[in-house]
Amino acid sequence: MTNLAPKFVDYSGSRFSGKHTHGDHSLDLWEPMVMPKEAIDAEIERLASLPKPDNGVRRSRFVHPRSVNEKAQSWAPGVDVSLDVLLPGERTRAVRQNSSVVNFCIQGGGSILQNGKTTHYKQYDLVTTPSMWVHEYVNDTSEIQVRLRYSNGALLERLNIHYVDEAPPPHGSSVDDLTVTAAEEGEWHHSRFGAFQITDDGAWLMPYEGLVNPPPAKIVSKHWPWEKVRNELDRYAQGLGQDYEGRRLYLLYDPVTGRSNGTTTNFFATITNRPAGISDRPHRHASAAMNYYFAGEGHSVVQGKTYPWRAGDFMFSAPGWAIHAHTADKGPVYELTIQDMPFCINTDCLLWQEDMKGPISLLGSHAGFLTNRDQLAKAS
Ligand SMILES: [Fe+2]
After folding, report:
1. Which pLDDT tens digit goes with each residue over 191-205?
2. How distant, in Å, are the alpha carbons of 158, 200, 260, 350, 365 from that of 347?
3. Is residue 24 part of a domain?
4. Is 151 exposed, middle or buried (0-12, 13-18, 19+ CB in 10 A)?
5. What is the mean pLDDT of residues 27-33?
6. How close is the Cα of 24 to the center of ligand 1, in Å?
7. Residue 230, Cβ neighbours under 10 Å: how many?
8. What are the two backbone dihedrals, phi and then psi, of residue 190, each rounded to the nearest 5 degrees?
9. Which of 169, 188, 272, 359 is the S-S candidate for 215 at Cβ 3.0 to 4.6 Å?
10. pLDDT (0 to 100) of residue 22
């Protein structure tokens, strides 16, 4: 330890971080970036050619140049994404960590063993791994398996709290299999161990027993098979028509995330079917967005700059609060979008502007936005 001393920094007269002068607040966005399919294919080949690592993990993180010299090497400030490869017959060693994961299989297939339960997946299936679940990836097929793995580990690394346990307890033995009696649940949800209200406008006090025993949510892994998602999405998207102003997507929703609209407690995953010629209206949101395109081609305009893309490309498509719009030039475009929207809703910071001439709303606390879907339905 070096001799460090705390200090004061004068923020008087300014509400912005130290490097900005008074009233001159500019966003310091990590610029959008496309990792092209060719680079991804070459990296898959390189990972496949390595001697098998001890823990079985053949993994490369997508790293934004803005994060290269930091402890958390990531694709967006709070989101790390990796390209994971498993050869036929390989499996990774068991691990658990306090970040949660969205797995999206982009090539081949296989299975994941999580807390003793096996989930088989194929190309474009999505499987979640909750925080602190013991898990092992398996390639029980004859083809190379490739996954995109999204996690909030980068955020936890920036907070110095990312816990990764490479010698976890046996499957199913950890607290995530906790069963709660009805009496305990009643206690949790109603009295909160003697918590009580002290002011008329709703300020409460809670003793320590409530503090260290919050009501547990039953967060379990979920699997969205592409075949089922695609059937629903195609039917839905075709019914929307050319004049629909919303996004032609389905959120892969886990109801345990409630009002935060999550696939995990940190991320939503949506899959969009974007017909050729369809453009979004320019819009922005505090959540950061990244798109993996797996059919079609098109372009995005982000903060006034154009970025072309096509199937197999991976894009940091919308840094938080960047104005952006995506257009399909050859369709249909299928894209997986991951955003840290649930994290933003749970921390009550999700500013959203659906139309650049319209209002900014704090989604989750203030009124949200409508589309013209009902009007179109009435007119037809
Ligand atoms: Fe967006």
Report:
1. 777 889 999 999 999
2. 17, 25, 10, 8, 11
3. no
4. buried
5. 90
6. 26
7. 15
8. -105, -60
9. 188
10. 40
Residue 2 tokens read as 């070096």
Question: What's the whole-number mean pLDDT along residues 289-312?
Answer: 97
| Percentage of the chain lying above the pLDDT 70 cut | 92
Rg (CA), the chain: 23
Residue 182 Cα to ligand 1 middle (Å): 42
At residue 187, the pLDDT reads: 63
User: What whole-number distance in Å separates Cα of residue 352 and Cα of residue 373?
Assistant: 20
Which residue is associated with the tokens 């797996």?
294
Q: In angstroms, what is the span from residue 283 Cα to ligand 1's centroid?
A: 6
How many separate domains does the chain show?
A: 3
Q: Say if residue 210's pLDDT is above 90.
A: no
Residue 241's pLDDT band (boundaries 50, 70, 90)? confident
Half-sphere exposure of 135 (CA within 13 A, CB side): 25
Distance 282 CA to ligand 1 centre (A): 8
- Say how many Å lie between the CA of residue 161 and the centre of ligand 1: 29
Question: What's the domain range around 145?
Answer: 33-165
Tokens of 164: 């990764």
Cα(227) to ligand 1 centroid in Å equals 25
335 and 212 in a single domain? The answer is no
Residue 134, domain member (yes or no): yes
